[in-house]
Structures are given as structure tokens and as C-alpha cells.
User: Fold these one by one.
Assistant:
Number 1:
Amino acid sequence: MLDQLETLYRSRLPEFRRVAAGIAGDRELGCDAVQEAFASAVRKRRTFRGSGTLEAWVWRIVVNAARDARRRRPALAEPHEPSSNGHAPLLPLDLLTERQREIVFLHYYADLDYAAIAEALAISPGTVGATLNAARETLRAALEEVH
Amino acid sequence: MDELLDRYVPLFDGPADWSDVLRRAKRHRRPRWRLLAIVVTVVAAFVVAPALAVLLRDRSVHLPSGADGSNIVVVMQPRTGRLLLEAAPWKGHDGFCYLVLRVRAGCVPRKARGTTVLTPPLFGWTFDPRVRSGTATTLGGKPVQLTVQHFGGRIDATLFLVRDWPPRLLREVVLRDAQGRVVARVRH
């Protein structure tokens, strides 16, 4: 089990870090969250019952660690606030909900399919699809407004 | 969309550090001796606490054995339900037994019109049937209202006490009748 975790860590580290950085809102925090998440997975490896895939189990831990890191992050001024003339934010990802962002990151950064995302977030694949579509619509509308 | 996402969190690569993961995993592991200490403490609390409670209770003051246990009357603090005073007829005697705030207990023979004040905590009784209220005066001159309770029947006495905490030093107790006239004045 420890070997499998190490293999997963080494093979998918860039994706883990990118997703965690996206959720945590900070690259350093994201990297730290991944380290903490894998440390947690090592500690709790005997509780993995094998009902799903090991990767999905680890993704869930990484997502939770990144969420925690985001919550613990010192309150900084939002870098992408709407401009004073009322136009849309520069990066429309800020318009998405936390859940939408997580699904977008897992889908685009980690290249996970709906089933894997659903397993990682403990939701149904249908919810993943619907949420992803809603996120795409929001982003499309925001991008059209900007351009 | 891809361009937007690339810009939001650019792909970055850093060295993998699996040894750091293992170090963190070990660091967060709670030492077994601490777990053992917690278990021992909890078990000890469950085993020792009841025995300790019995021991402590046994050392507290009770109503004297001479009290007629079938005729106990009590005064409780209205809000907290705390037992302030217990009194009962004195078996085989003309008088009564008392327990005050679980710290002082005794039995008193009846006298014609005697008034007695004990302190601390301030507690007393009078066999004068006129007494209805009372005040004590602290060393600083501040008046303190007494809880005054008349018990009829075989006790047939009026008991009074100060229920404030911590107990204060008092220099004088004044007992009054229903019209507010001074019936007894006891100085310390």
C-alpha cells in the first residue's frame, strides 16, 4: 500500500499540486496541502477499504487538505476583484462557486473523468456533469462579456 | 477555456519529496504512551471518582443522629435549589437539631426567649415568637438581609442565616417583629 501511494505521488504530483493550488488559491499552500494530504493518506492507509480506487481516495484527501489550507489562509485583498467601472472580473473563475471550481480543476488540471471526480468528491456523476456544464456556461458568458 | 485555466494556475513543476511526506506522517502520529496515559486517566477517573465522592461526602457535616429523621424541614435557595438549612426535632428532648450550609450542625435545648448567633457562617436561632425579620451589619457598616424562617410544631423556633458567599465578618445582628420593631440585638 505504501508503495502504491508513493507511485501515485511520483506519477501524478504536478496534477495534484495544480489542483490543490487552484483550490487553496495559492501555489505554496497547494504544494503544502499535497504533502500534508499524502502524509495523512500514509497514516490512514489501513482505513482504505478498497471500495473505490486508491487514486480517488487520495484525491478526496488532497481536495480536503486544499480546502483546509484555503480556510486557514490569511485574509488578503482579493486580487481579482471587479473593476470599479462594473465590468466583469479579469479572471472569471472567481465567478464560480467553490464546488464548481473544484470540479473544473479536477476535470481540466487532473484530467479526471466524471466517475473519478464523483468518487473523489463523494457526489454522483450526474451532479458532476451538471455542475461542470453550469461552470462552463458561467465562464463562457463572462468571457464573451470581457471580449 | 484551456487558456483561461492555464493562466489561473500555471503548470509548475517542483521536485517530488516523498521523504517529507513520510516525515510529516510520522510527526503527526500520536505517541502510544500518550494514548496510554489518556486511557489510564479516563479509567482512573471512572474508578476513583465515585470512591472519592463517597469519602468526601462522609467527611461532610450531617444532621446529628439525635435529630428526628422523620420530621426534617429544609430551607432551600430559591434559584439554585441549594440546601441552606435543615432542622428537625431533637429526639427525647425539648429542642431541635440543625444543619447549616452543610458545615455546621448541632442540637439546641429550648429556652424561654433566648437568641443565639453563631459565626461563620452567620447562623442563629431564637425562641422569641415575635421575630419575623432580621438584618446583620458588616464591619464596614453595610446591612445584610437575613433569611429568617419560623418552624412550628415540635421545633417551634425561628432560625436565621446569611446565605451570601464568601462569608463576611459581621458586627451586629438585629431581629425585628412584624411591625419592624427591634426584638433582639446581638453584637459580636
Number 2:
Amino acid sequence: MHINISSRLQNLRTLQQFLSVIALLTVSVSATAKLNIGITLHPYHSYVTNIVSDRANVMPLIEAGFNPHAYKLSPADLNRLKNMDAIVVNGIGHDEFAMEAIRKLNLPNLTVIEANAAVPLISKQGGKVHNPHTFVAIDATIRQVYTIARELGKLDPNNAKFFLKNALSYAKKLRTIKNKALENISPLDIGLIRIASTHGAYGYLLQEFGMTVSAVVEPAHGVSPSASQLQDTINKIKSANVQVLFTELNMPNQYVDVIENETGTRIYHFSHMTYGEYRDALVLEDMTHNLKTLVEALTYASETLNNGL
Amino acid sequence: MKIHSETVLARDGKLEDKIVFGFSLLTLLTAAALLYALYGHQHSDFTAIPKPIRAALTSLSNAGEEIQIIREIEEYIPSIDSLSELGIAPFTPSALSTQIQFSWEQVSSCYVGTSVIGTKQYFVKLELPDLIDQPAKAYWFADAENQKSRAELKQLCIDSTITWHSAATFDNINTKTHAH
């Protein structure tokens, strides 16, 4: 009888030790397990990789090379979505392909991080429609980077400070690009410069330099204006005395040449940052390009106005 | 065998047209009424952030994050002068004539700024939370009737008569939606 009880106690101790080892292993695995963070657009890949470095896995929801404006998710995309712990979204109109699926699928383990949650948005009255191109501007990008870092820190508290530190460092890099542009723009007389753009992607970027867009050419992104709309735009550009027209890199728009010829407005190309492969350096590189282009355009417009042309 | 016969008068189609039209109209009106009841009034009192202060509010919101980081690392709340020296916008003087300049005051963990643009006076405010791991919140208020123009700027940090709007558009939408 005594042996039997002792044997049972021994078994219980062994079981207890076994469970403790399992519990320890689980804790250590969960402590080292990396978050799988999804992104919907190219700029968010840059933001998130710069925030998390090697302490999380960053996975694009859709493969490179697709136009996010009219994309439909494939079964492979949906599988990727189901394997994510979190997904960073634009959430205000540029990644509706993802938002639609997220709303319908009801994935309880997926945390949706709304990058634009704290951004002061360009909104239409009523508050239902917003300009979604916050990722083309410097300060709006910094705002999104901080929001993403904070939200990821909530999901991975062990790395929360690391994420925020990286966000601050990334913000400094972005601000350096802006300050360099400001140095070049500040001597210019830009008060009378008038700007047109092919679509509304550059509103956030231009407002950071105190500029507004006098005319937007395309009725919607990638949609060429009709002949009568084009004529109206040409008249509007002429009457507003627009000096520069911003359009998108790698977007062949024949009507832009017509506008240039008819109005004498000079064309400059900005990157929309939603093309090609997903790259960590995309945003810093393309922001540098965009602000260099902005400086060139404003210098040209300022000289044109000074020369009274 | 008895054959039962019934004479059916041919319709001229006019009555059916009226009935179909009536039902179509009723369906459309019901759908419109339902849609309005569900969504129509949700964002009717949404106030879009005014164009002249939108960029400054974005900078202010970013500054809030950076002030929280300073609080955490250096354990103090920076003054307006030190924020300006650190080059943190919008506390630092603007390099461009096209950007707005604000006058600033600070009351403990609240920063409030004002600028006159055209005929309107705009106020912006940054409130730091008690906890350093929480984000700061930025707000704005447009004083179209210049009622607050003579008020001491510092008082606006505690003035409960002002309806401040959140700089985060998402907050505005959610607040308005929940209010109904």
C-alpha cells in the first residue's frame, strides 16, 4: 500500500515536471515568436520593415506588379491574409480590395492597423470620402509610422520600445529630406505659383509647403478626361495662370502633352510609390526624388513669374 | 358534355401600367427612406479640417509623439522654446512664407497656439496624457466670430465652453457616429 502511494506521488511529480517544462517551452516560444505583419500597399512595406527590422515578418498581401486600384484578391492572397497576426492598411480608399475581404472574412485573430487613424485627412464634407494619398507626403507619412509603431507595440510589448525608437529614427530620415527641400525652396518667391496635377495624389505633399492645387485634370485616377473635360481643364489652367503640372512617373498620358502644348505649363513627374517590387528603401528613395522634383518645379515657376513670362 | 365558358375582357394595358408604376415608386421611396434612416444623418454634422491648418495639425500630432518620447527618455515636459530649438514643427518658426505661423502658450501638459488666416482665427491644441506610453492628442477650433480673439491664450487650455475638434479625422467620424 505504502509503495503504491509513493509510486503515485512519484508519477504525479514526474507529470508536474513534464507540464512545467511544456509551460516553459510555450512561454519561450511565444516570447521569441515573430509577428506576421501584412501590408496592403508598397509604402506600408517600407514603413513596417523600417519599424520592426528583423523582429517581425513583413508580408505583402498581394504580389508585386499588380495595380492596387482595381485589384481582386486571389485564393492565394486570402490564404496569406489568414496567416497574418496583423495587417497595416491605408483604410481610406486606396486598398479597398483588402478592406472588403477583411470585412467579409471575419478573422478574429487578425488585428487591423489603420495607419491613417490619427492623420488629419483631406475630406469631402460629410466625412465619408477622404483623399487616400497620405503616403505621398512627409509629415502624413511620419504620422502613420508612429501610429503603426504604437499599435505593433501593443501586439508585441517586448519590442514596443524598439519599434518606437525605430519609428523616431525613420521619422528623422524623412524630415531630413523635407528640411533639405525647405532650404532650397525658402529663398524662392512661391506665393504666386499656381499648380495643376493629373490626379489628387499630391494634395498632402503640397499642403506641407503651403501650396494648393488649382486644377485637377483626371476625373478619377488613371481615367483620361473626355475631350470636353480636357478643354475645360485647359481653360481652367489658362485662367488660373498655372505654371507647373504634376503627373505620375511611368504613366503614359498623351493628353498631358496636349495640355503642355496648349497652355505652356511645364510637366513634372512625381512617384506614386505603388509600383514594382516591395523594397525597404522605396519610400526614402522616392520621397527624395519627389522633393527634388518639387524644388525643380518651384524654381522653374518662380523664375517664370519673375521674368514675367 | 357541358362546356363551361367564361369571357375574359382584354385589358388595354393602362391599368397595369399604373399599378406597376405605383409599385415601382413605392419600392423606390421605401428604399430611399430606409437608406436615409440607416446612413443619411450619420455624418451630417461632420466638420472637415480646414485647409489652412491641416498641415500644421499633422505636424502638431507628430510633435505630440516626439514630446512623449522626450518625456520617456529625459523625464521632463519640454517647453515651447526647447521644442523650437529642437526644430520640432510647428513650434519652430516656418521657413516658408506660404506656411502658417502660430503664437504659442503652454500650461503644464497642454500647448495651445493661434493664428489669424484671412478673417478667421484658428486655434490648435496639443494635450499630453498622464501616462507616457499613451499618444498625445491634437485638436483644432475655428473662431469665425472672433469671440476668443481677446481671451488669454493660456485660458483656452481649460476653457470648457469651446468645442474642440480632434485633429484625427477618424476620431471625428467615430464621435459623430456614436453621438446619434
